[in-house]
């Protein structure tokens, strides 16, 4: 899903960006990067594969000098997992630009050809984000003057919107100018802006994927960046904002609320935590309605994301809530790990059953979502091994039957356990005694309650409706051939680690 952050301030930003990335780590565990602009107006870059705490050592932090910078944590959804595709990306013309991106472009292939044929620009990686950067750079290049005016920068964003399709929340820096951030015209991926006022009255600004990053760094949340909107903060700290899309719509990704975002974040005016509690309430009511005859003894979450949901289900059903599984806090999120083998292995490394909570009991296990079924299959087995009599499973998200093309790595329908299957077939595969899914309308209502202005969510993984309207079966087949687990494994063997810009080693 990737996390992005940018700070335009008057004090060194290296530590603040590092701290923000640790708070956004749940959005991407594969690679991390920071770029700053130093006193000589040069970019300083450090990026590599790994978690934030492993990528940045003291020596890197010392070299990441400057009062403006951007950062990224990566969960790959395009290209490869190579360090050369870690972000931010750099291009030297015009002026020198770096950029970090959360999301996924659906027309990357055509844009790559167009950039080479018409723009004479070579893209050296298989990343869609490098393409996005070069499209933006080409558009900035159309203005002959230096420095560019805010109007020019917004015009370049508007022209970029017209060419690229898909989902994107972007933060970038232009040498001699400042920090730019923008969000796709459907607002699929989240982006917020905050402000911190210094003792001398000057304002520092920060943009980030989630509001929790602002909270942690003492920035006051100003608002969500609107779909299609761009934000420009000059080197001197002046803030400009402009709507740059012709027909912006608010279609936030529903899966952010289910799984990706941290519960203490607000996305598009919706508290992720409250939305999850309401998911629990609605699912609890459905269980009470449909499973009257099931004799449940205890409600057990599958840590970590489902905990808030399961607690509310237990309250609605008037049953005890117990931590039947203990999570190893040193193992990250399994769903965003690359490759099915590593995901499979990680479930048992991550979760262990508390036998006392299972022995001779009918247990209701609750997860936020069932995607490939990797977690639930093994968890049901573990519950039985721990002595459970009957194992029931409830998912706070409906059946996930369609691929995601907007920044969640679910490129292949056949890898989804619910694809082409009815609930009972899924139940058999998972090995549960009963299985229940949330209804899509209930899930949408649970989220919408905080912000009734969201008319339509980006819910494609549940209903197959792609809000950018450019996704057809041909594209889905192409994506599947490019990114299914086998194709990725082959690509991993041929990875090259060429970085295009000096990397603080
Ligand atoms: O059906 P699957 O393909 O297994 O995917 C779904 C599971 O993956 C996620 O957990 P994850 O371990 O990534 O993170 P969490 O600790 O935040 O729950 C999610 O919360 C589900 O438990
Ligand atoms: N999950 C994301 O947002 C990924 C961003 C970008 N498509 C990449 O693969 O690096
Ligand atoms: Mg989970």
UniProtKB/TrEMBL annotation:
This is Amidophosphoribosyltransferase. It comes from Sodalis ligni. GO terms for molecular function: amidophosphoribosyltransferase activity; magnesium ion binding. Pathway: Purine metabolism; IMP biosynthesis via de novo pathway; N(1)-(5-phospho-D-ribosyl)glycinamide from 5-phospho-alpha-D-ribose 1-diphosphate: step 1/2. It catalyses: 5-phospho-beta-D-ribosylamine + L-glutamate + diphosphate = 5-phospho-alpha-D-ribose 1-diphosphate + L-glutamine + H2O. Its EC number is 2.4.2.14. Binds 1 Mg(2+) ion per subunit. Keywords: Glutamine amidotransferase, Glycosyltransferase, Magnesium, Metal-binding, Purine biosynthesis, Transferase. Mg(2+) binds at residues 305, 367-368. In the C-terminal section; belongs to the purine/pyrimidine phosphoribosyltransferase family. CDD domains: GPATase_N (cd00715), PRTases_typeI (cd06223). Catalyzes the formation of phosphoribosylamine from phosphoribosylpyrophosphate (PRPP) and glutamine. SUPFAM superfamilies: N-terminal nucleophile aminohydrolases (Ntn hydrolases), PRTase-like. The keyword Amino-acid biosynthesis does not apply. PROSITE patterns: GATASE_TYPE_2 (PS51278). GO terms for biological process: 'de novo' IMP biosynthetic process; purine nucleobase biosynthetic process. The active site is at 2 (nucleophile). InterPro entries: GATase_2_dom, Ntn_hydrolases_N, PRTase-like, PRTase_dom, PurF, PurF_N. Pfam families: GATase_6, Pribosyltran. Residues 2-236 form the Glutamine amidotransferase type-2 domain. The keyword Metal-binding applies. Gene3D superfamilies: 3.40.50.2020, Glutamine Phosphoribosylpyrophosphate, subunit 1, domain 1 (3.60.20.10). Its cofactor is Mg(2+).
């Amino acid at each position: 899903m990737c996390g992005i952050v940018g700070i335009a301030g008057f004090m060194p930003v290296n530590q603040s960006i590092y701290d923000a990335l640790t708070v956004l780590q749940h959005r991407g565990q594969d690679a991390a990067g920071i770029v700053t602009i130093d006193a000589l107006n040069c970019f300083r870059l450090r990026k590599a594969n790994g978690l934030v705490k492993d990528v940045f050592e003291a020596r890197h932090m010392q070299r990441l000098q400057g009062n403006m910078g951007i950062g990224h944590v990566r969960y790959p959804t395009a290209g490869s997992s190579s360090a050369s595709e870690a972000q931010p990306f750099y291009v030297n013309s015009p002026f020198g630009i770096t950029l970090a991106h959360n999301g996924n472009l659906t027309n990357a292939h055509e844009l790559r050809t167009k950039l080479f044929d018409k723009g004479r620009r070579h893209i050296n990686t298989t990343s869609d984000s490098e393409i996005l950067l070069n499209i933006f750079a080409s558009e900035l290049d159309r203005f002959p003057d230096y420095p560019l005016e805010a109007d020019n920068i917004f015009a370049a964003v508007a022209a970029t919107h017209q060419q690229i399709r898909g989902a994107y929340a972007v933060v970038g820096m232009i040498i001699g100018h400042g920090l730019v951030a923008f969000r796709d015209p459907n607002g699929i991926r989240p982006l917020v802006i905050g402000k911190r006022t210094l003792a001398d009255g000057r304002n520092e600004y920060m943009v980030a994927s989630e509001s929790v990053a602002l909270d942690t760094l003492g920035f006051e949340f100003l608002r969500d960046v609107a779909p299609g909107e761009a934000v420009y903060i000059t080197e001197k700290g002046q803030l400009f904002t402009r709507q740059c899309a012709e027909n912006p719509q608010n279609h936030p990704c529903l899966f952010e609320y289910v799984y990706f975002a941290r519960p203490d974040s607000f996305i598009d005016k919706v508290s992720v935590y409250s939305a999850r509690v309401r998911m629990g309430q609605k699912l609890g009511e459905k269980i009470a309605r449909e499973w009257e005859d099931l004799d449940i003894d205890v409600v057990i979450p599958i840590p970590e994301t489902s905990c808030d949901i399961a607690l509310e289900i237990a309250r609605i059903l008037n049953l005890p809530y117990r931590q039947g599984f203990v999570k190893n806090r040193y193992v990250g999120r399994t769903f965003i790990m690359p490759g099915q083998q590593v995901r499979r292995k990680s479930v048992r490394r991550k979760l262990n059953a508390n036998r006392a909570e299972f022995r001779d009991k009918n247990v209701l296990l609750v997860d936020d979502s069932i995607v490939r079924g990797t977690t639930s299959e093994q968890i049901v087995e573990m519950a039985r091994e721990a002595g459970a009599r009957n194992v029931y499973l409830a998912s706070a998200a409906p059946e996930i039957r369609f691929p995601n093309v907007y920044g969640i790595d679910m490129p292949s329908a056949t890898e989804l356990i619910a694809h082409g299957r009815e609930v009972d077939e899924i139940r058999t595969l998972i090995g549960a005694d009963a299985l229940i899914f949330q209804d899509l309308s209930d899930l949408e209502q649970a989220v919408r309650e905080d912000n009734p202005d969201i008319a339509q969510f980006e819910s494609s993984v549940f209903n197959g409706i792609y809000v950018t309207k450019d996704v057809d079966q041909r594209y889905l087949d192409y994506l599947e051939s490019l990114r299914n687990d086998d194709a990725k494994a082959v690509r991993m063997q041929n990875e090259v680690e060429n970085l295009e810009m000096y990397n603080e080693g």
